[in-house]
Amino acid sequence: MKERRKRDVGSWGRFFWCTFFVVISCVVVTGFTFSTFTIFGEKSRPVLVSSWRKHALEAITGESYIPPTISIRETVIFPDQELVFLKYPQSARLFNKDELDCLYFSPNSSDTHIKLPPEDVDYQIVRCPSRPHGFTLSLALKSNVLLPPGPTHQWDYLVYEALIDRDNTTVAFVKGLNLKPERASDPTRFECVYGWDFRKPKFLLRSEVVSIAQEVVRCKTPLSVLNNPQRLNSTIKVSVRMKGRGAILHSVAEPKHRSPPDPPVRKPHVMCICTMVRNQARFLREWVMYHARIGVERWFIYDNNSVDNIEKVLESLQAGKFNVSRHLWPWIKTQEAGFAHCSLRARDSCEWVGFIDVDEFLHLPAGASLHDIVWNQSSTIAELRISCYSFGPSGLTSVPPKGVAVGYTCRLTAPERHKSMIRPEALNSTLINVVHHFHLRNGFDFLNVDKGVMVINHYKYQVWEVFKEKFYRRVAAYVADWQDDENAGSKDRAPGLGTRAVEPPDWSNRFCEVMDTGLRDRVLQMFEDPETKRMPWQEHQEDDEVESSILMEQLRSKRMVYSDPL
Fold first, then answer.
1. pTM of the shown model
2. Could you give the CA distance from residue 163 to residue 237 in angstroms, rounded to a whole number?
């Protein structure tokens, strides 16, 4: 009996250790295959490439596949280009456009491939021409290191940006919900989802939607996310799902930013400006220098895929002690969402924020300063609505050398629309905004500013060389590109131009009903050098215009070639 027990114990012991060995082997193999794992307190993340991708990439260049120090995190497909998001290890240097190629290959053939230079590389984002039909997009380093493709998302349905607000809610920016403009929707129809991989429902956190309007969704952030700072600094993403339909929207949004929980007692700036630009670097110097003179202290520049050396211009302004910052905002047709995002960023440092474009200049006919105007408002006024006058080419056929405020002096009689300056602390939590004005919280109101106190000179219809760029992609969500037939009668369009960028013979004399030299006279008085008769921004402006024109022409030529690369 004892011998039998010993044999039983021995066989069970062998079975236990065999089972233990098999389980450990499976865990290690699984760790190598799927995830980061820990061995003796050290983390390891193997680099794996599916066999067809590895062989296809090797066949393209004839080089052996080398595990890269960087990887492709994911790709977003836009109508006219693709954004490739790179993932860099800590302390790794960033690559520039001269070190990368956009690589297009067919998954079913190792013989057909295309290499093209990227349109631009900006921090961790590479902008590539659109892929030919049936091809896969990847990247190749000039050092013959090939990066395997990452997950691909269509821009039409995507959670593209997110931040955590001071009340611990997550503010997510979403494309594809198709909600009605300028009104809040029912938040109970939606839920927010947090996780690393939305294909694995067991590992997702779900939370309620607090508010939802336009492209802005405010979510209740799970406590497990808020209480674990390491999660906020990892790759956890947030997405949105409509209840009852099951599908979770694709997401590239990692909510890492957190505002201070309490607003500062005294903010460092009285007056700030948010704007969104695309290829308007040559106009920034005049715009920033003028507004600094009348009281603007801080500028938030949201860059919507510019390729005209805007970084160089902003660095020059920063060297001149102008408090200008560039925020990369690659998302197309999202001006309203970008302004909502900027209102949150500016809230902790700015008492008032103006939302105007680079071709719009605040004009104070009575000679007051912006600080005088905003400090004279009652505590319940949180939005100043300012009338806009649209100026025409004023008889010019070339870009005015002293700048737009001096060069364009003839406008339409009646003002068009209005733009706003707001107190960001008073904004409604939905962040609804349309045509540069926001919804306010209860208890606050807006004021229509008297035209004798402040107006906006909108240099909308400039010389044809400049104006024709408006026919290409627009940044506003509710404005159609002028080459499309959509909304052909919109006030946003120039009357009678149609959808083709063809200069009318009388263009230089259009949109001229009233001579208005008020701002011109003031700008000359403030800035013109009495000896040279030059303006301070002219020192660099000619170089900016030449560089901008060359870069824009190169981009258009590339896109003509890329339209049929085969």
1. 0.83
2. 11
